[in-house]
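# nightly structure sweep
# worker-07 picked up a monomer target from the shared queue
# config: single-sequence mode, recycle default, output format = structure tokens
# input follows
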Amino acid sequence: MTDTPASPRKARRKGSGVTMADVAAAAGVSMQTVSRALRFPDTVTPETRRLIEEAIEKTHYVHNLAASHLASAKSNTVAAVIPTLSASVFAETIQHFSDVLNAEGYQIFLGNTDYQSNREEAVIRSLLGRRPDGLFIIGTQHTRNSITLLRRAQIPIVEGWDMTARPIDGLVGFSNSEAIADMARHLARSGRRRIVFAGVLRQGDSRAAERRDGFVAAMAELFPGEKPRLCIAHDLPLAMESGIELLSRVRAEHLDADAIMFSSDIIASGALLEAVRRKLPVPEKLAITGFGDFEFARHLNPPLTTVAVPSARIGREAGRLLLEGMKGQAPSQKRIDVGFRLMIRQSG
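# output follows
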């Protein structure tokens, strides 16, 4: 009788079947020590931690975070919800937010709502399903269902970029309406009397709506009895090309305008470049202002007058507030107004 040769064992994929016991054996320590080093690195000696890290590198071990989260009721993750991926100011906020959280060992889940309230609900529900330890959301205008989801999550929440009298939990932002009103006052002080507000107002973009409303209130204060001049587009994207189109619409509807306040630097820059191309004297005949102080604003010719928003500070403060909440610390402040700054340049 001949022996049947044993089937060759299937090679184990690196990382797929490596266990904590393999790491412990390679490091010459117990499994409990490896587990403790992974969950609480400061509880083992630097030498032991070095041995375990070398063993992990050698065995290609991947820590099972899901099991660890079940054991500790912590995920070491934070969720962030933003309205769009295309705006650099939001990217800067998230970058500085992430820097603060990464330094404390947290990773970021990111969700994009595209300014749609129903999509925001879906994004919030999906991110909360991953059991983050905290959540940062840009904006303060939410559906009732979204608010309920956030409050019932029972984790620290920070809203950003806007101000509201009734925040869900923490708040880091500024007044969009007051910022645009300050710009209107600047233009009025410089002798402008026929000021137009032009913007792309997408459904769900509460910040653009607040800027429009702030302009209307400022015009009532500065020029009582006069109808505010508005040029609002609901059919255009937030792009430089829209600035060209809005400039044409303003010139058609308000030919006597001596200043145009745009709701964003993106569309303001498109309008400014088009005005120069048309040989419209800026600012002598027509002042043009933006909102956001994007990096390119200062490099236009003429440089763009705009509102600077401390987007990096919003991210840092939001990260700090969440960290305090996730550590169970009483926050020094739960409502932080970071303010804004008028950047007066040559365009207006």
